[in-house]
Design goal:
The chain has 362 residues and is of the alpha/beta class. It has 2 domains: 28-150 and 240-281, 3-Layer(aba) Sandwich (D-Maltodextrin-Binding Protein, domain 2), CATH 3.40.190.170; 156-238 and 292-339, 3-Layer(aba) Sandwich (D-Maltodextrin-Binding Protein, domain 2). It is 49% helix and 14% strand. The protein has 13 helices and 11 strands. The chain has helices at 2-26, 43-57, 78-83, 116-125, 128-137, 177-185, 198-204, 215-220, 223-226, 249-254, 257-291, 301-321, 323-346; strands at 28-34, 62-67, 89-92, 141-149, 156-157, 171-173, 189-191, 209-210, 229-232, 241-248, 295-298. The chain has a 6-stranded mixed sheet with strand order 7-6-8-5-9-11, with helices on one face. A 5-stranded mixed sheet has the order 2-1-3-10-4, sandwiched between helices. It is globular.
């Protein structure tokens, strides 16, 4: 009897182990390379949160591991890593891929237009997501937006910049083609370098200033140690910023429909999470920058008007050269023309407002 009981128990254990092994073998495992380092909050946090959502929503049937820039590949190589299937997925900012097609600039951010809520409205209801998937599809990839933030923190420099003349000869790190072109027209010297290299470039004086992300991002990148001035209004160059998730098309097609739905909905949920986190973290970051003695340097109206004019001009010029760019830009402009009529009705409440006085609540 004891021998039979032992054999029965051993058989049961064997069945359990075999079942566990079968489940393990069936688990879909993706590696997601990113274009940012762990210091780049809230963007890296959003990558981790997306992976966590996929794991939970799939009931453990799918896991995504996040690999920051430099761990599997440099930031600017993520696109080709995903396209070629070296990794199943990647996340960065689509403006990094404009060397492949300038239309990728239009799925990152725009100067003087497209708030975070505009991006979400246009992407999910205005046809933007379909256009993005058409563009990435040309490069053997599926596309979903994975993160969105409001106006970026802005340019941080070691000299005050208030007028157009103040930009002349100043070497500034920035990313979006539209901003690069606008700066070139007014005599600035824009350069593109990945986020992980910005701190040292500022410290060594190889650049005179930089912009990167949300206020909390800039604080964690220690810009308070390497710059003295905060050029405002913040975010004129990137009013709202999208982070892209690229998925190798072969890996995407291998997913069963329910796991495809998990990925898609996890990405959408992550947009809301990332937006609220960036806003919440910004409050503390602004207070820290002020306490660190960083001085505000506000652009005059003439400079703001000229930069806006140039941002619009770049879109017109690039649309005339690239049909992909023109198709997407037209969709964005058509949306803005229609929704601006709604904004006019909203008046001062169209993007939130500062109260003239606050309720006194004890």
């Amino acid at each position: 009897m004891k021998k039979r009981a032992f054999l029965t128990a051993a058989l049961a254990i064997g069945v359990i182990l075999a079942f566990a092994a079968a489940l393990e073998a069936q688990t879909v495992k993706w590696r997601m390379a990113t274009g940012r380092t762990p210091a780049l909050t809230p963007y890296h946090d959003a990558d981790l949160h997306f992976a966590e959502l996929v794991n939970k929503m799939s009931g453990g049937r799918m896991t995504v591991t996040v690999h920051p820039a430099g761990e599997l590949m440099p930031a600017f190589e993520v696109f080709d890593g995903v396209r070629k299937g070296v990794v199943e997925a990647g996340a960065a900012w689509s403006t990094y891929w404009t060397g492949k097609n300038t239309a990728f600039d239009l799925f990152c951010s725009l100067g003087f237009m497209m708030t975070a809520s505009d991006w979400m409205t246009w992407l999910y209801d205005g046809g933007g997501l379909k256009l993005g998937q058409e563009l990435y599809g040309k490069y053997n990839m599926m596309f979903f937006p994975i993160c969105v933030t409001g106006p970026e923190s802005g340019f941080r420099t070691n000299k005050p910049i208030k007028t157009l003349d103040d930009f002349k000869g100043v070497m500034l790190r920035t990313g979006v083609l539209q901003t690069i072109w606008a700066f070139e027209q007014i005599g600035a010297k824009p350069v593109r370098i990945p986020g992980g290299e910005v701190y040292m470039a500022l410290k060594l004086g190889t650049i005179d200033g930089a912009e990167y992300g949300a206020p909390s991002t800039d604080w964690n990148m220690k810009f308070q140690e390497t710059t003295k001035y905060w050029v405002t209004p913040a975010g004129w160059h990137q009013v709202g910023t999208i982070s892209d998730m690229m998925i190798n098309l072969d890996a995407w097609k291998k997913l069963p429909p329910d796991l495809q739905a998990v990925v898609e909905n996890a990405a959408m949920a992550n947009m809301v999470w990332s937006y609220s986190k960036a806003n919440w973290d910004a409050m503390e970051a602004v207070e820290k920058f002020k306490a660190a003695g960083i001085q505000e340097s506000r652009l005059d109206q003439q400079a703001q008007d000229k930069l806006e004019e140039l941002c619009i001009k770049f879109m017109e010029l690039e649309s005339a050269k690239n049909p992909d760019y023109a198709k997407i830009a037209k969709s964005i402009v058509d949306y803005l023309k229609r929704f601006d009529k709604v904004r006019d009705m909203e008046g001062r409440f169209k993007a939130g407002t500062g109260l003239k006085a606050y309720p006194e609540i004890k």
